[in-house]
Amino acid sequence: MNPLLDFAGLPRFDEIKPEHVAPAIDRLLAAGRDALEAATRAHPAWDEFVAPLEDANERLGRAWGQIAHLHAVMDSPALREAYNAALPRVSQYWTELGQNLQLFQKYKELARSAGFAALSPARQKIVDNALRDFRLGGAELPLEKKQRYAEIQEELAKLSAKFSENVLDATNAFSLIVENQERLSGIPADVLQAAHEAAQKDGRRGWKFTLHMPSYLPVLQYADDRTLRETLYRESATRASEFGKPEWDNSFNIRRIVELRRELAALLGYASYAEVSLEPKMAQSPAQVLGFLDDLARHARPFAEKDAAELRSFAKSELKIEELQAWDVPYASEKLRAQRYAFSDQEVKQYLPEEVVLQGLFRVAQALYQITIVPSKAPVWHEDVRFFEIRDAGGATVGHFYIDLYARDTKRGGAWMDDAITRRRKGSEIQTPVAHLNCNFSRPVGGKPALFTHDEVLTLFHEFGHGLHHLLTRIEDLGVSGINGVEWDAVELPSQFMENFAWEWDVLRHMTRHVDTGQPLPKQLFEKMLAAKNFQSGLAMLRQIEFAVFDMRLHSEFDPASGRTAQRLLEEVRDRIAVLKPPAYNRFANSFSHIFAGGYAAGYYSYKWAEVLSADAYSFFEENGILDARAGQRFRDEILAVGGSRPAAESFRAFRGREPRVDALLRHNGMIAA
Ligand SMILES: [Zn+2]
After folding, report:
1. Nearest to 361 by CA among 290, 460, 221
2. Using an 8 Å Cβ cutoff, are 67 and 98 in contact?
3. Which band of pLDDT confidence, cut at 50, 70 and 90, is reported for residue 674?
């Protein structure tokens, strides 16, 4: 039996083969089309019309989710081929569904029917969302425009897939073997050990460095050899650009993606793609978002200028770097940080072994939400993967999650949470949710456990926050359960909220144990970390604002037909916002997968937007006690449990008792003018 067609329990990741993809997708697409056909003839009531279609679509979504997941974490040429062959057919199906006028008509009838008022608020929200999505999906378009809409969607899906494949291929294609030990000065021992093992694996002598973060970042931060830093920086900054292999150049893909998105917006009657993107979001208009970003930039700029001036003068006087270049910034910053706060990421890392960190993280969730997290068993795609169960106070299963922590050649970069199974009611049963947490951390080397930097710990808390949003929902309807139906610009609230806990002494001291001595993190070192927390926070905030403004302007005012390039727009944005300018060859946009392949188009601002919400939410815990179970209960009830069943603005007000304020974010970033 095809494991992709088994929905009885957990995904059978250990049995799924590339040859299962096509037949499973064939079956599920056919079943989906049958259900769609039946739905268009059904009585417009929830049980007769919405429920059977949801069932069929859930099966397709789950199977496709497993394929997409394996494509992201365990890629192979055969799987990639199967994935790419099926992708246009799957997106074609969703497009068809979104454009089916009879279905649209049924939803309208349901919304107008006497039965509508009797539906739960969650179900009413699902129907409202469906009507909105139909309009955004082109359901009201005349036939020939509808055809064009479908073509655009299909081409965009392919272009996005190609975009991220190019980034992955360009990232994997580069490696540098260093045989001269003198060139390694400054690089931490565990990084060298990993580099040495990587070279050995290739049958080479010396040390192998790559553009994957666990290799790239320490070189940029610690290598005394300026040329080595510059080489890696240049290779990373020009990935998937005209400076590399022509077949991996994303320049054309960027232009084409923006062009098609503009065309799509025009078809729907919007002035820009940004307006389409904001329609289902919490923010109201591109102008409001640009105003919000401008406001933050104004607060951050004086702090960023001070950061940059300090760094330049430090680099000149202490490191003899006359002209500070982009490949000197992480290096000089790390040296300045070490001098000023007398500790390094590497020192802290020794106190953060995997198991202790995980237990510390679980302790926070257990204290806040009255749950327990225990190891469990499931079929997995790689031996690195771990699996856990969440139980409530009475011992009942709340949900499960996978953690896949280490970087691999076959895994795409970054860290992300994904839903594998969503909580919902099925007759008299509750289907419990399952989530994926994926990271790209360093694997254990030299017989020691994996050690995480504090930044990586923050990443883990972040993704776990997304996971809890998905797993602690109490909603019983698929469309607004967990993270489903949550506005994009509010979806980072629970994740960024969780990061705050990794900065609390009462949390951190229980999740540290030196890998060699077994000692907990010294309070003094923590005080230094805290003092260093806002080190260069002005620069960091401006950098995020730069990306967000580029994204919003690219999708609101930019027209590729004008002859202007996205690269030129990025340079204009940098001229206005950036305090430290990268070299002219920097092609950041060519690997900006968030907005070209990741669903963040005209949505990158949402990180900052949600940070305001999360910092403000966290200040409630600062007022009531960090691990206060009643505050936790309230956060779970008003934010996590409700999922997308009501607008995020309403959930926030219900939790905080008032509108969001920026004060807490500025305070957490040390940006309160004296
Ligand atoms: Zn996130």
Report:
1. 460
2. no
3. very low
